Amino acid sequence: MNIRKPAVAGQFYGGTPDQCLAEIDACLPPRDLQMELPNPIAAAIVPHAGWVFSGELAATAFKAIQQVNGDVDSFVIFGAAHRYFDGGAAVYDTGSWETPMGEVAIDEDLAAAIVADGGIVNCDAHREEHSIEVQVPFIQHLFPEAKIVPIIVPVANFDHNFGTHIGELIHKTSDKKIVCIASTDLTHYGPRYGFCPHGCGEAALKWSREVNDMEFIDLALRMEVDKLMTVALDKGNACGPAAVATVIAAAKAMGRICGVLLGHTTSCDILREKFNQPSEESVGYAAMVF
Questions:
Q1: Dihedral sign for Cα atoms in the order 208, 214, 216, 217
Q2: Model-level pTM greater than 0.70?
Q3: CA angle, corner 65, sides to 267 and 257, nearest 5?
Q4: Which domain, by its residues, includes 79?
Q5: In a domain, 23, yes or no
Q6: Do 58 and 27 contact (CB within 8 A), yes or no?
Q7: CATH code of the domain in which 272 resides
Q8: Quick check: is 25 in a domain?
Q9: Given CB 3.0 to 4.6 Å as the disulfide criterion, which of 60, 90, 138, 185 pairs with 152?
Q10: How far apart are CA 90 and CA 245, in angstroms?
C-alpha cells in the first residue's frame, strides 16, 4: 500500500505519540469557542508553521469544526506549494499518511472524483511538503475515524473553477460529511525572507501585521477569490494563496457568503509573549472558518 511517511515530525511538531498528544492538548482551547460560528462549517483556513508558533490557531479551527459539525467523514486539505511549482493541483489519491500518531486513510473515492474534476495525481509532490502534514495529527486526535484527501495547489496554472467544482461535488454528496481546509501562512517579513518594503523595526513589523496581513485576511473573509490572488502575488502576504483561493471558491459553491476570523498573530508576537525574545523578522498566522 502507498504510505506517505512524515517529513517534519520531530521538527515542526512532536516526533512521538506522547509528544504529539501533549502538544495538541496544550494547543487546544480549554473550552468551547464563545462566538457565532457558521453551522455547519464547510471550510477553514489554518496556518502551517511549527506548532510552537501556529499550533494554537490551527487547533482552534479544528476545535471549531468539531464543536459545530461533530463527526467529519473526510477532510480535503489544500496545501501551500513550497517545493512543487509546475503542473496543476497535485492530489495524493491512494493509500494512507503516517504520523507519529499512526496512519490516516486516503478517501480514495473522493480523491478519484476530484481528479476527474481537474486534479492531477502526483503523490511525489507531497513527499517533503509540510503545509498539509502539520494538520494531520489534529485530525487524527479530534476526528479519529476521518479520512483525508491531500492536495497541493501551486500558484502556476491556478484556476478557481477547480475549487468551484469541488464545492459543487461536496454539496451534492449526501452520504459523507466533508470539510475543506486550506493551509497558508501570511506575510514573511524581514531580511531573512528578502522582504523589507518598510525597512526594519517596530513600525515595519506593525505594518506587516496590521496592514499587509489584514488586507489578505479581509479579502479572504469577504471571499474575493480573484482579488485575493492578485493582492497576494503583488504584496507577498500569503505563501499559499492558491490553496486559500481554492477553498474559498469551494465554500462559495457550498453556499457560504463570508468567513469568521478565529485569531491572528505573528511569530514576532509569539517570541515576545512565550520566550521574551525580540525579533526583527515576522511571519503572520491566521485561522478562519466559513
A1: positive
A2: yes
A3: 90
A4: 40-289
A5: no
A6: yes
A7: 3.40.830.10
A8: no
A9: 90
A10: 15
